[in-house]
Design goal:
Belongs to the aldehyde dehydrogenase family. This is Aldehyde dehydrogenase. It comes from Haematococcus lacustris. 29% of the residues lie in helices and 12% in strands. It has 4 helices and 3 strands, in the order αββααβα. The protein starts with a helix and ends in a 16-residue tail after the last helix. The chain is elongated.
Length: 100
């Protein structure tokens, strides 16, 4: 999982929002990749690029999320991103526009 975080952070404009470190003081075998809850921000325009899409949409079994943001002029781009996903199990869109 930490390798995945590192791959995402190589995307232009990406940044670690929180986490990104192994858990300490536990007895979980290292093979399970016990990490702190982690969030990585990736700009929407970069996430949509073919060279980044696979990394941005990889599902991990762990406390991990990729976060982006969109503005009024990017609603269609966000909808395109949702339609482009092959699995819609853990995707979510949050808006402060109650009419959207």
């Amino acid at each position: 999982m930490l390798d995945h975080v590192a791959q995402l952070l190589r995307i232009p404009g990406a940044k670690l929002l929180f986490g990104g470190r192994p858990l300490t003081g536990h007895t979980i075998p290292s093979v399970y990749g016990a990490i702190e809850p982690t969030a990585v921000f990736v700009p929407l325009e970069e996430a949509m690029k073919a060279e980044h899409w696979g990394h941005v949409t990889t599902e991990l079994f762990g406390p991990f999320q990729v976060v982006t943001q969109y503005g009024d002029g990017q609603v269609q781009l966000m909808l395109d991103a949702l339609e482009r996903m092959s699995h819609h199990l853990t995707a979510a869109v949050v808006s402060n526009d109650i009419n959207l």
